[in-house]
Amino acid sequence: MTALNIPPHASAAMLAVVGLLLLASASRLLLAAKNPSTDYTELRLRIQSWWWIVGLLFLVLASNTQTAIVFFGFLSFLALKEFLSIVPTRMTDRRVIFWAYLAIPVQYYWVSIGWYGMFIIFIPVYVFLFLPMRMVLIGDTQGFIRSAGILHWAVMLMVFAVSHIAYLLTLPVKNPNAGAMGLVLFLLFTTQFNDVCQYIWGKCLGKHKIIPKVSPNKTWEGFVGGVLTTTVCAGFAAPLLTPLNQSQGWVAGLIIGLAGFVGDVVLSSVKRDLNIKDSGSLIPGHGGILDRLDSLIYTAPLFFHFLYYVAY
Amino acid sequence: MDKVLKIAVFALIIKPLALLMLGINLRGREKLPHTGPAIIAANHNSHLDALVLMSLFPLHSLPKVRPVAAADYFLSNRCLAWLSVHCLNIVPFNRSGQTEPGQLFATCHQALDNGDILILFPEGSRGSPEKISKIKKGLFYLLKDRPDIKVTPVVMHGLGRALPKGEALLVPFNCDVIVGDPLPESTDSVAFTRTLSLAFAELLPYCLTRHDSE
Asked: Could you list the residue range(s) of the whole structural domain that residue B159 is in?
């Protein structure tokens, strides 16, 4: 049974997440019973989708490393596709975009064989230099600069950044109680926890807008409260799920808190520029895949490199 | 037998492809007609249009959903004709102008009498990618003798980039499928094309893949 290979701290973390989801579902039912006239469809869909995401993720993590790497590769594909579908590209970029998609299996192959040197330069060096060359061969110079910029940014965000989640699984295990999946659970949970904390602090105390032009709902109170809560909690969770000690966990929490906010508002700016609210409709109640992945795009590489520097 | 083939092709190939390789931003699914006879009038950018639209229907109702397709193109060679007739079960339409005016819609009428849901592209051709061309009057004349039939407008966007006219390489992109309310009745062909154009124009802003950053 592969399912029995889950290390104790990782399975405890998974149980805790399931517990939180049960709590969310129960509160939703309670809310609906209290205010029968209010429409909670959106909230219901949102929580339902969370169950699916969490279920799928745990299943994948519990299976084996290769399956999990393929899963994150597929996530990169969905994210890149969604991003390239909403940003302006030229018809003549189609073939270049096809090559950009091909970078995904290659990048995740480096992850699967644990070749760190190649994993870290493949997209910033080789893909970066190759895509404009492929564009030159097509020969459409009208709008060349803009397309080259958009394409490279897309591949960096959706493939390079996201693939850091998968590389956590290939790192040597230094905390046998949590295993490789402990790192992934810590990153995903802390990132999501930070999103929720910033939202709740902002809802309760939010007064001073932080960047009204991009996200009118983001406030200094929400930002600071969220980052502090995340930092403190990460200090407790890190020794259980990662090789980091408590004070290193605080730093990791601070990094994730700050980076999560930045990822969120960077992707918000993209959507605002395009005059759209959601980037897709893949996840009911959430929007597109980018609406869920936004913070993670920033937290994954930054957490990874902090961890890699401190513990490896 | 063809029914089984069509369901199998959609269950095993087209539905997974439409969901995973392409990805659909769907709006207004509940407005799609469940039972025939009915007509879906969509804008046309790509060969994928009809396939994606059909993939939105549950497998059991798929045999009743049939795209109206140009006989001069889809029946032009044996291989394509076999696929069109047996896998997709198209309603062949002769747009070359050689048919008697009264006979032009014979195949469509037959299908509607049979209770089918027809997918029709009133622009007549895919035109230039991602642009809605002038709407032809054909659909109005088809409807003239059948006032009972509902026409549901659908706007699609993005597939012209995934597989444009004249290209063989499919590049994955999300596409939008926005379903509108059934059209009101029109008294003449000019009013009809205007109503349909307006309906398309109202649905177009819901498309996420339009990237209007200007």
From this structure: 2-210
